[in-house]
């Protein structure tokens, strides 16, 4: 899906028919800036479908740093974890001819609807690991799902030392995962 819009605070992404709400990308104004227009390309990935599995980046192998504050120290040799993905996205944002890869000291809020086949496995206040694909290294790397100053950060820290994405429920009882991205594409 590609949308061109004036920078606002939030973008809702629906399926191709414009019906089912799939994802919200929020905190855009703070992360990117107020002026100009942006182009957003957002792909919602459902790993329970064949199409989703085929579009998943890499081979589901991932690496985790022993030091959560230096997750970028992981390399391909550390990719010894086979992931079971719950939901994934690929977001690209351009402003004019500039590809936005990092944000103005802010984190982009990402909320993704859990696939129908996985709705019953999770409950509000559950947490799932947050991984990003490092295009240069060709592996998934675990990262914090919440910025340091976010009130959810402390309670979302799990045994591995990383803050995990929060599962929450909307008014219709549908589960979503909420996390924050500090960069797009690569590291």
Query: Which stretches are poorly predicted, pLDDT < 50 over at least 5 residues?
Result: 1-7
Quaternary structure type = single chain
The description of the largest β-sheet is: 6 strands, antiparallel
Termini separation: 23 Å
The total tally of domains equals 1
Region (Disordered): 46-73
What descriptive keywords fit this protein?
187 residues; mainly beta; four-stranded antiparallel sheet; 3 helices; 8% helix
Structure overview:
There is one protein chain. By secondary structure, the chain is mainly β. It has 3 helices and 14 strands. The protein has helices spanning 28-32, 50-55, 153-156; strands at residues 2-6, 10-14, 21-26, 37-45, 61-63, 81-82, 88-95, 98-100, 108-113, 127-128, 131-134, 139-142, 165-169, 175-181. The strands form 3 sheets. The protein has a 6-stranded antiparallel beta sheet. Strands 1-4-7-8 form a 4-stranded antiparallel beta sheet. It has a 4-stranded mixed beta sheet with strand order 6-5-12-11, with no helix packed on it. Strand 7 (88-95) and strand 8 (98-100) form a beta hairpin. It is globular, with a radius of gyration of 16 Å. Residues 46-73 are annotated as: Disordered.
Q: Secondary-structure map with pairings?
A:
Blueprint: E1 2-6, E2 10-14, E3 21-26, H1 28-32, E4 37-45, H2 50-55, E5 61-63, E6 81-82, E7 88-95, E8 98-100, E9 108-113, E10 127-128, E11 131-134, E12 139-142, H3 153-156, E13 165-169, E14 175-181
Parallel strand pairs: 5-12
Antiparallel strand pairs: 1-4, 2-3, 3-9, 4-7, 5-6, 7-8, 9-14, 10-13, 11-12, 13-14
